[in-house]
Design brief:
Blueprint: H1 2-33, H2 38-50, E1 56-58, E2 62-64, H3 66-89, H4 99-118, H5 124-146, E3 149-151, E4 157-159, H6 167-189, H7 191-199, H8 203-228, H9 235-267, H10 275-283
Antiparallel strand pairs: 1-2, 3-4
Helix pairs in contact: 2-8, 3-5, 4-5, 4-9, 5-9, 6-7, 6-8, 6-9, 7-9, 8-9
């Protein structure tokens, strides 16, 4: 027992020594870096929201926000990946799945079950949409972790942000989800479904701002940690990765769940009337 306790104590002392060394390194880096430039912080936060300075040329026609370039890159990557999976991977699927097949089936099954649970009456197209939307949100949010660098029109190197960190992209995703809900209601219940969907007129705005605010907050928190806290040696990396992963998972689940839930509400068919009540009305 004494030997075990001594071993545990040594490990605890080692962990404590490592933590002290890390804190000392961060403190030394903070002292070396000195006080941050408040003007630079204000400019970074303003440009992260409004995208007024960092612009990119789109085929030499117009200047666009960097998030639009990120959206094109993410969309192209997803389409190429989907084509490769369909051509090379799907024909080799087996009854006993491998690791890649199991991961893919789990992802498809998760969104398919969400669609069936939320909308048992009509869920074929819903499952496809929330799977595609979920993949786009998740991959697009993680895209900023790669740190793709491109040169803007001013000649500055800019790290590409997440596509949905632009308010325009978030609004487009929110309204697209609402139109899917509206179309499902009309296709299933006609005028009744249209009325149910129109009652939720604030839904696209709420989904858009929820998505935009959550993704933007990660960027703002990382910038604040980097500029405003004198620990800009390693802390921003940890904070940025954690916030990005957290937002990627949460926002993927939230938007797909909201879309599936409201889709299920507008496509729910009215309960059939009892036979006795029908007979009385017919007799009358």
């Amino acid at each position: 027992m004494k030997t075990v306790k001594k071993g545990v104590n040594k490990k605890l002392w080692l962990i404590a020594a490592v933590l002290v060394a890390v804190l000392a390194a961060l403190l030394a880096g903070a002292i070396a870096i000195g006080s941050p430039d408040k003007g630079a912080l204000s400019e970074e936060l303003t440009d992260a929201v409004l995208h007024e300075e960092k612009k990119f040329s789109l085929f030499g026609l117009i200047e666009v926000n960097p998030a639009l370039i990120s959206a094109y890159i993410v969309t192209a990557v997803l389409l190429v990946f989907a084509a490769c999976v369909r051509i090379f991977a799907v024909p080799r699927f087996r009854e006993v799945p491998g690791k890649f097949q199991m991961v893919l089936e789990q992802a498809v099954g998760f969104f398919n079950n969400m669609a069936k649970t939320s909308s048992p009456h009509s869920n074929g197209f819903l499952g496809c949409y929330i799977f595609a939307a979920g993949c786009y949100i998740f991959v697009g949010t993680l895209f900023e972790l790669i740190g793709v660098q491109l040169v803007d029109v001013a000649g500055h190197s800019v790290s590409m942000p997440a596509p949905l960190s632009d308010i325009n992209a978030a609004i487009a995703m929110g309204f697209l989800s609402y139109f899917i809900i509206l179309g499902g209601g009309i296709a299933t219940n006609g005028v009744r479904g249209l009325g149910r969907a129109l009652k939720e007129f604030s839904l696209p705005i709420s989904m858009s701002f929820r998505l935009f605010g959550a993704l933007l907050s990660g960027l703002l928190v990382t910038e604040l940690v980097y500029y405003a806290i004198f620990l800009s040696v390693a802390v921003p990396v940890v904070v940025g990765v954690l916030f990005t992963l957290l937002h990627a998972i949460i926002q993927t689940y939230v938007l797909t769940m909201l879309t599936a839930t409201y889709f299920g509400e507008v496509t729910e068919r009215p309960a059939p009337k009892p036979r006795k009540l029908r007979a009385k009305k017919a007799a009358a």
